[in-house]
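Thread title: Can someone regenerate the structure for this chain?

I was given the following input by a collaborator and told the matching structure tokens would be attached. They weren't. Posting the sequence so someone can regenerate them.
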Amino acid sequence: MSATRESRPQASTRFKVTRRSLFDDVVSQLREMIVTGVLRPGDRLWEKQMCDTLGVSRTPLREALKLLAREGLVELLPNRGALVTHLSVAELDEVVEVMAPLETLIGQLAAARANAADIAEIDRRHAEMIQAQGVGELSQYFRLNQAIHERIIEATGNPSLLAVWTGFNLRIQRYRYMANLDPHRWDKAIAEHEEILDALKAGDGELLGRLLRVHLTNTAENCKLSFSQASGTEVSASPEPGRESEEGIIA
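Best answer:
Regenerated them for you:
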């Protein structure tokens, strides 16, 4: 028997953006190129080359790079352009440590407040995500995966929670994408999403929060395992402050 759902608070602003600027488009395109590995860790972002690639002038490119630097995706080099930051196991552990309890809260609130329209939309995107996996479209799968997580948070009716989660999630999107390069993890992630959807439909906040948290930590551990296999080293938890080893950097 489903739990009684709460009426979620009315948001003062809508979640969906209806208009995009050139700046937004440049940020989105660069972010996707970095997350999906088109631009790899350590790559230099030469201004003229990037302007030609994106078909934009220097001003929106420079502003976009400033925002991506705040997100931790690029490092600005004075008078020398920018470069894509390296992936760090320490950073991954640090962000997951903060996001894990957020996932628990998200599950509790979403299960109590999601309405039939919310659940139907998440169900539809889940079906589309399975289709993307079936034909091996990783980029589309990843976009739908992220959209599902965002839609679950939207169902909480708490814009502040979405803003906080989004800020941290932007820092680890590359890690999430890397984790799905493993076909076994891809299958397991689908199964975890099935359980998450079932818990949401049942209105079981305690279970949903636990499943979201486990889903996050499993993704993080798989990412570290993938790196360990690729580098031939064993990746452990965060190193002591000031002692990050070469094994803790994903080049």
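DSSP finds nine helices and five strands in the chain.
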